[in-house]
Amino acid sequence: MNENESPEDRAFRAEVRDWLQANLSGEFAHARGLGGPGREHEAFEERLAWERHMAAAGWTCVGWPVEYGGRGATLEQQVIFHEEYALADGPARVNHIGENLLGPTIIAFGTDEQRARFLPPIVAVEELWCQGYSEPNAGSDLANVQTRAALAGDHWTIDGQKVWTSLALESDWCFVVCRTEPGSSRHKGLSYLLVPMKQDGVDIRPIIQLTGTSEFNEVFFDGARTGAGNIVGAPGEGWKIAMATLGFERGVATLGQQVGFRREFEGVADLARRTGAIADPLLRDRLTRSYMGLEIMRLNAVRTMAGVAAGAPGPESSISKLVWGTWHRELGELAMDVLGAGGLVADGEPSERSSGEAQGSTPRGGYDLNDWQRLFLFSRSDTIYAGSNEIQRNIIAERVLGLPREARG
């Protein structure tokens, strides 16, 4: 608890803490800690039921305005909620993309009709969302998007491929950045469409990750359709809106994420004490630097929350992504070095996935990773997904510091 919190915020923290303590018990006691990185498919139905339980009690979308189904929580209260949720070891959220990315984007840029149609099912956790940004040749270079959409009467027709689409198998809808102006290139001619996933013309293929799970997927659109009104903003404004969505992604929820990071760090430090690895001066120095990085990360995140309070976050949010992505990857490396040679051995024997196994439901490979191996493998992706380090450095240099643009061939 922050000793400088106002009486209202202290009361809000107590309300959140008491509700979580009372409800992460009984029917949902086993849900604590489920579904973290590398365990994305773990107990998905139970986590969905938990989140709908939260919705019924008014604990989803707490930062949204009251008129859109939220609690109208202040920035400080949103931070408190995410911190307390992480401290209570609440299960990984299944509605993160809808609640924290698409919802705020619709509130900021959508029409009244879109708000009425799409926001209530997000609040109630009745419709899940995924993000259709990256493509095989447009990952970090998102402006190279080639997926096409054409307006024909009362609907858009979409053709193309997206990749690294998190939770596509579980999602009902996808917000898709696509090229709607023939002959356009780079940032121009892009639009932001809302596309139903459960239809002919949408083919979802899981991608097996290093952790053996397939949290992300490749998605093929072959004549997929969506209504003419399911475009956020005007045609050609897709880049602006897509960047705003990325800003929301790096918003207040990252402070709750950092509570999880702190618990991981404390686990690594405790492991070093138990194994005696902490006696190694180089490992002890890296643990110290990791702790300092954690503190710097939190201070930087609090500083950049001003962008969230002002509306859509600006390019400064790239600093937070660069900081936490790098720090978490290095923590995974540190955990493996603390484990030593034993960390290279996994439990069980590798085996082929059986033909009857449901797609995306369980880890592949027949072996079981421990928490530190899973942390190491998953955190390799932290400096790539949600904007690679290279791109974040360019954004910071060009849009924050005003340096000359990088030369492009």
Automatic annotation (TrEMBL):
<keyword id="KW-0274">FAD</keyword>
<keyword id="KW-0285">Flavoprotein</keyword>
<comment type="similarity">
    <text>Belongs to the acyl-CoA dehydrogenase family.</text>
</comment>
<keyword id="KW-0560">Oxidoreductase</keyword>
<feature type="domain" description="Acyl-CoA dehydrogenase/oxidase C-terminal">
    <location>
        <begin position="236"/>
        <end position="401"/>
    </location>
</feature>
<dbReference type="InterPro" id="IPR009100">
    <property type="entry name" value="AcylCoA_DH/oxidase_NM_dom_sf"/>
</dbReference>
<feature type="domain" description="Acyl-CoA dehydrogenase/oxidase N-terminal">
    <location>
        <begin position="6"/>
        <end position="125"/>
    </location>
</feature>
<dbReference type="InterPro" id="IPR046373">
    <property type="entry name" value="Acyl-CoA_Oxase/DH_mid-dom_sf"/>
</dbReference>
<dbReference type="InterPro" id="IPR052161">
    <property type="entry name" value="Mycobact_Acyl-CoA_DH"/>
</dbReference>
<dbReference type="InterPro" id="IPR013786">
    <property type="entry name" value="AcylCoA_DH/ox_N"/>
</dbReference>
<dbReference type="Pfam" id="PF00441">
    <property type="entry name" value="Acyl-CoA_dh_1"/>
</dbReference>
<dbReference type="InterPro" id="IPR037069">
    <property type="entry name" value="AcylCoA_DH/ox_N_sf"/>
</dbReference>
<protein>
    <submittedName>
        <fullName>Acyl-CoA dehydrogenase family protein</fullName>
    </submittedName>
</protein>
<feature type="region of interest" description="Disordered">
    <location>
        <begin position="346"/>
        <end position="366"/>
    </location>
</feature>
<dbReference type="Pfam" id="PF02771">
    <property type="entry name" value="Acyl-CoA_dh_N"/>
</dbReference>
<dbReference type="Pfam" id="PF02770">
    <property type="entry name" value="Acyl-CoA_dh_M"/>
</dbReference>
<dbReference type="InterPro" id="IPR006091">
    <property type="entry name" value="Acyl-CoA_Oxase/DH_mid-dom"/>
</dbReference>
<dbReference type="InterPro" id="IPR036250">
    <property type="entry name" value="AcylCo_DH-like_C"/>
</dbReference>
<feature type="domain" description="Acyl-CoA oxidase/dehydrogenase middle">
    <location>
        <begin position="130"/>
        <end position="222"/>
    </location>
</feature>
<dbReference type="InterPro" id="IPR009075">
    <property type="entry name" value="AcylCo_DH/oxidase_C"/>
</dbReference>
